[in-house]
Each structure stands twice: as C-alpha cells, then as structure tokens.
Model the fold of this input.
Amino acid sequence: MRHLLIIIALFATSFLANGQGIDGPWKGDLRIGMTKLAIVFHFQDGKCSMDSPDQGALGLPAEVEYMSADSVCVTQKTAAIMFSGRLRDGAIVGRFSQGGLTVPLVLTPGDIERSRPQTPVGPFPYRTEEVSFNNGDVTLAGTLTYPEGWNGRKKVPVAIMVSGSGTQNRDEEIYGHKPFLVIADHLARNGIATLRYDDRGAGSSTGDAASATTYDFMLDAEAGIDLLRSLKKFKKVGIIGHSEGGEIAFMLGARNKVDYIVSLAGPGVQGDSILLFQNLNALKLAGYPDMKITKEYVRAQIKAQKNPWLDYFIDYDPVQDIRLIRCPALFLNGDLDTQVEAEVNIHSIYENLPKNRGGKGFANKHTGVTVYPSLNHLFQHCQTGQADEYPEIEETISPEVLEDIARWIGNL
Done:
C-alpha cells in the first residue's frame, strides 16, 4: 500500500575532491519501521550515482557536496535528501535524511545482486506491442502481450492489469520482483492476452499522481479497457487488479465495464479499517502489542495530512461496488497477508457478493473465492507475511496462483 512505500528521487550532477579511498559501489539498507529498502551508492573520481534496486531505479545522479579519502556527503536539495558518512573499519558509517526523517545508514563495499528466477528472459514465443491510450490529458504507455501462437484470426480473452497503490511501472516492480511481467508471460503461454501499463507519472506515462485518487486511477484503467475493445481482437475483456487495483476492479465490475474480474488481495472493507489493521500490526512489530488505537484516531491523523489519495482511500467503502458485481469474478488472498488481512476482507467480499435465488451460491456461477496458505500480500510463500521479508524472498509469485488464474480465465 502507498504509505508503506519510500519514494526516493535523486537528480543533478556532482563535483570535486579526491575520494579514491571510497571509490566503487557501496550498499546498505534503509530501515524505517518494518520497511527495509536497499540503497547503493556508486562513487568514482569525485562523482556519484545511486541505485534504489528495490524500486527499479538505477543510475540516478546525485550531487556530491564533499568527498575525501575517508568521508563523503551527498545531497539532493529538491527532495531534501542528504547522506553523510565516514569510513570506519571497512564501512561507511553515516546518516541518511529525507525531509524531517533521519535514520542511520551503514554502507559496505559491493553491489546488490538478488536472485529472481521467475523473471522471464527472452527470446519469447509470443508477440508484444507497445501501445498508448489517453484519459483526458494523461497518456498511459503500456505493453500489449499476445498469446503464444496467436495469428489474428481467432479472438482470445484479454486482461488489463492494474497495480497496487504507489506510482509503479507496468511490471508492478518492487524489490526487484516484476509480478505483472511474470503473470503476463504465464498467461501468454496459456492462450490469454494482457495489457499492462505504467501508472500515471511513472515510466513512459504522463500525468501527476500526487493529486490523483483511486477514482482517477479507475478512469485510467477504463481508458485502457476502451482501447482493448476498440481493437476488436478479443472476445472477453477483463481486469486483473492487485491490492488497490482490486478495488478498481470492483468499481469497473459494478459499472459493467469488464467481462470478468480477478482480484489479487483487493480490499473488501473501508480504507480506514485497512489502515487501522496495518497500524496495529506495526505497533505489534515495534514491541507495543497492547497499545490500542482507534479508527477515529487513524482518520484524524490521515485527514491532517491533506492528501487527496489518502482522503479518498479511507472514505471509500468497496462493499457498495461488490454488491453490484454480476460478471464472473475470482477473489484471491494469502492467509499471511499483513496489508490486506484475508480473514476480514475475504469475509466481507463473500458476504456482499450477489447471491443466486436460493441464497446458497453466487449469482454468477463462475465466481470463486480462494485463500492460499502461507502466502503474503505479494502472493509469495513466506514465513511471517511481514513486509521486511519481501526483498529476501526469491519467488515472485506462487506458481499455484499463476495456474489458477490462467485456468479460471481459460474456462470462462
């Protein structure tokens, strides 16, 4: 979810000094609450660039304020960022600041290499096409992936893929994982086309995400659906939404804009309840399991920030849309999800979906609900489900989840 993400932007150039004592790559982990974010600084001849590999940001130039054989200070004034440290026992020990937050940061020599064995590597047995579509003055850029063996004569199902909260690229890249790329690859090999796109303000897409709400992102996705229908190549146009993208799937399903829905950890209760759960979980991790906060407290803290996205999020109740979903829908969650708790959210979805006349089944016979054991919010096998595990897990997404999505769409 958005409030768990740390957004780091470094720009500009550098100058000065003889820093051969610390030339080369230096890596470290920023730890803020339960979130851990890898950082790599590349120092060379008085210049510096930075990687945030967990966010897919590489080679970002930074401004060097000072560099010597045993110390360095790097800043980015626009983003109010500074790192300063001194070489000590083979490590650069210092402090990282952004805005009003300052945390310790220890850098050790070397780059970060993580194994992500599920990330597809070409050549691929299917065709892709770069496309774009517009929502007003916002242009969304994406990749349309056709199924293996597709020749244009037979219409196939297609799904637009909508990411979770935070500004993300078309692969929904996080901690070096590319879940949307993995899903698109698997579906292409199973006869299903996909459209994945960069969020507004990310990658090659235009627009400002800072003032946008979930409703605005829903309109972005709807524009992508309009593109897919206009191509007249597909027999069913659906949506695969993760987290906030699941809420967007509910919205579009309620408005009869899609032929089917796949919700991956889509919230089934109002946003203030989601944030209350996440804050209580954070307090437990911090060693305060008995500290009680209320939904009213959470709402007051959020409203004080005057953030349009958060204001909309805590007020939006997905139940109002879930009750209107009549198209085939697949709702998936992991039982160790610590961001969208499966027990509460899946229960709400199950109870509020339209039922058949007898009241013992869903109005749409294709609708299904599954909670997977030992999977987290990213649908990875895990131990605790906490966010600090995400970077260390090599699996991008459970193969069982991939197979279930492909089989369910294929059977519609």
User: Anything to note?
Assistant: The radius of gyration is 22 Å. The chain is about 25% helix and 30% strand. The chain has two domains: 2-109, 128-270+316-410. The longest strand covers residues 57-67.
